[in-house]
Design brief:
The strands form 4 sheets. A 7-stranded mixed sheet has the order 3-4-5-2-1-8-9. A two-stranded antiparallel sheet has the order 6-7. The chain contains 24 helices and 13 strands. Helices cover 54% and strands 9% of the residues. It folds into 4 domains: 163 residues, 2-Layer Sandwich (Beta Polymerase, domain 2); 85 residues, Hydrophobic Seed Protein (Orthogonal Bundle), CATH 1.10.110.30; 171 residues, no CATH class; 48 residues, no CATH class. It starts with 10 loop residues before the first helix and ends with a helix. By secondary structure, it is an alpha+beta fold. Keywords: ATP-binding, Coiled coil, Magnesium, Metal-binding, Nucleotide-binding, Nucleotidyltransferase, RNA repair, RNA-binding, Transferase, tRNA processing. Its cofactor is Mg(2+). It comes from Bowdeniella nasicola. InterPro entries: HD/PDEase_dom (IPR003607), HD_domain (IPR006674), HDIG_dom (IPR006675), NT_sf (IPR043519), PolA_pol_head_dom (IPR002646), PolyA_RNA-bd (IPR032828), tRNA_adenylyltransferase (IPR014065), tRNA_CCA-adding_enzyme (IPR050124).
């Protein structure tokens, strides 16, 4: 596995950071602990927020565990907060908001899973330590009691945090068997935190990966999305491929290893794909730029852009290898996979369209494009143009510096021409020079297929020859109509 950019800290250093971070918690959080204590109940900040306190990471979600049962929790939160909700009450969770602070409070639990079910059987627990033991990883199984601020770590999460290691609180086989989604979470946290997975835990991921079949596609999709938009998605993806999880969740990525070629007749498509992903991430912009990172559409398109290669690989005379039309095949495969993972229609459409278009630029540097070809490039990309720019540039992974410079210069030239044409013609808003109503009035025809055919002809003419005056557009339309 690759090394992360995180630097390991000692346990004592982590404790100092956490102590400082605890002092920064909103006063209403300590107040909430006092509300529960005064009512005779325990309350503790748990899970990710505690882990992030030690790592000095921003904490957006405040999750608490309590000895109070949901009815008591709801009563206390109703009195404490400005508003509260009980959407997760059947799982023991009540939410509330006071000022700008949002909290979720869950009754101590000891979840059990039916081996054939996708939903846990919720059973309430008696102790904070028992609740922490049922969590996914030791670094997420730490707590801070409130209002006393006592640190609780029954599973050794702090040493694992210092070592930057993901380990399950109980035997990993049992943990993953109880909740198979934790296998995906291991990959996601590797991508988010830059941590390694402890070998025994990694072996259990591989052994129990088939259990993911009982997890709903929506939950797997949510974890995959978090992984892809994390700081180090490559780490999580490599872990999925290494453990065989990708064979079940994202087989198109795993299958790229089939194109590895010991004879060096073409590049390693799997490694190339991960490099393209890294390079696409590097081309994302800040919040005010055209492609603010993390951008899931760009990243997933980079990951899927060559998935059509295994199915289209052909060995040509002379020892060369071809992948003709792999972009078209890859777009279809991408669309199918995203539908199976229940991605929304627009995201699916955008990613698969980028995969389909990612080769369109190739050949530009060898043969000058007409203005018409440039217009078509922009029109076909539509609102995805800025992402297509970045995907195309990221797709250059050659070690031949001269070739890389030539490709970069060619794309610089294409972008320059796009900017020039856009300024002259407002390229992104290309429409025929006559509207549908104009066409019907000039030709004296009612609404119907003939209007659509005329509209399409005028659009094609505009793409080929640029804008016309209204008078010229009418003459062109009449000439086309008479010729029909």
């Amino acid at each position: 596995m690759p090394t992360s950019e995180n630097s390991a800290l000692s346990v004592s250093q982590l404790r100092k950071i956490a102590s400082y971070q605890l002092d920064q918690l909103p006063a209403v959080v300590i107040e909430l602990g006092e509300v529960f204590a005064n009512a005779g109940f325990e309350l503790a900040l748990v899970g990710g927020p505690v882990r992030d306190l030690f790592l000095a990471r921003p904490t957006h979600d405040l999750d608490f565990a309590t000895s109070a049962h949901p009815d008591d929790t709801e009563r206390l939160l109703a009195a404490w907060g400005d508003t509260h909700w009980a959407i997760g009450k059947e799982f023991g969770t009540i939410g509330a908001k006071k000022g700008e602070t949002i909290v979720e409070v869950t009754t101590y639990r000891t979840d059990e899973y039916d081996p054939s079910s996708r939903k846990p059987l919720v059973q309430y627990g008696d102790t904070l330590e028992g609740d922490l033991t049922r969590r996914d990883f030791t670094v997420n199984a730490m707590a801070v009691r409130l209002p006393s601020r006592e640190f609780v770590d029954p599973c050794g999460g702090l040493p694992d945090l210092a070592a930057m290691v993901l380990r399950t609180p109980i035997e990993p086989e049992r943990s993953f068997d109880d909740d198979p989604l934790r296998i995906m979470r291991a990959a996601r946290f590797a991508a988010q935190l830059g941590f390694d997975v402890e070998p025994h835990t990694m072996a259990a991921m591989e052994k129990l990966a088939p259990r993911l079949a009982i997890v709903s596609p929506e939950r797997i999709q949510a974890e995959l999305t978090r992984l892809m938009t994390a700081t180090w998605p490559r780490r999580g993806l490599e872990l999925m491929v290494y453990t065989g999880v990708a064979d079940l969740v994202l087989p198109e990525l795993a299958n790229l290893r089939q194109t590895q070629d010991e004879h060096n007749r073409h590049k390693d498509v799997y490694e190339h794909t991960l490099t393209v992903l890294d390079q696409a991430i590097a081309l994302e912009t800040g919040p005010d730029g055209p492609v603010p990172g993390p951008d899931f559409v760009l990243r997933f398109a980079a990951l899927m852009h060559d998935v059509g290669k295994p199915a289209t690989r052909r060995f040509e005379p002379g020892g060369q290898v071809s992948f003709h039309h792999h972009e078209v095949v890859g777009a279809k495969m991408t669309r199918k996979r995203m539908r199976e993972l229940r991605f929304d229609k627009q995201t699916t459409k955008d990613v698969s369209r980028l995969v389909e278009l990612h080769l369109r630029f190739h050949g530009y540097g060898d043969q000058a494009w007409t203005d018409s070809a440039v217009r078509r490039y922009v029109t076909d990309a539509g609102p995805l143009l800025e992402r297509l720019h970045r995907l195309t540039r990221a797709d250059c992974t050659t070690r031949n510096r001269r070739k890389a410079n030539r490709l970069a210069a060619a794309y610089d030239d294409l972008e320059r021409r796009i900017d020039e044409l856009a300024e002259a013609e407002e390229l992104a808003k290309i429409r025929p020079d006559l509207t549908g109503n104009d066409i019907m009035a000039i030709l004296g025809i009612p609404p119907g297929p003939e209007v659509g055919a005329a509209y399409k002809f005028l659009l094609e003419h505009r793409m080929e020859h640029g804008p016309m005056s209204r008078e010229d557009a009418e003459k062109t339309l009449r000439a086309w109509w008479e010729a029909r």
